[in-house]
Amino acid sequence: MTMQDNLKIAHRFLEKMGSGAAPEEIASLFSANLEWHIPGDSGALPWIGRKSGRGAVENFVRESSTLMERIRLDVHDVLASDDRAVIVGELVTLITATGKVIESPFVIVLTIAGGEISNFLMLENSLAVAEATRP
Length: 135
Prior knowledge:
Blueprint: H1 3-19, H2 23-27, E1 30-38, E2 49-52, H3 54-67, E3 68-80, E4 84-95, E5 100-113, E6 116-123, H4 126-133
Parallel strand pairs: 1-6
Antiparallel strand pairs: 1-2, 3-4, 4-5, 5-6
């Protein structure tokens, strides 16, 4: 894949996430053998930790829409190389169960092979996430 191809895939991912596309439609951008990782307290939210397969994406889309409300998502940069795309930004999220708000910078690293996202790594303020999910 080229840098331009990987930029397009990253932008397609952001567009689908922002448009409210169906979980299966978003997951179609990912490899069936996807490796998903969001480091942090795996007991805080169901999508944190290590997961695998497209189901991880589908579950994230479904569960995040019921467990939190996205208040703001600002994408500052989308960068790419021949095998990765990196999304840099800030997000503000309300955890519906607690009413607490998380403000966090984030970086999403997408490893891309054969036109599909094969590895998803999201780095965010995991301490703020864990604290916001506790009453």
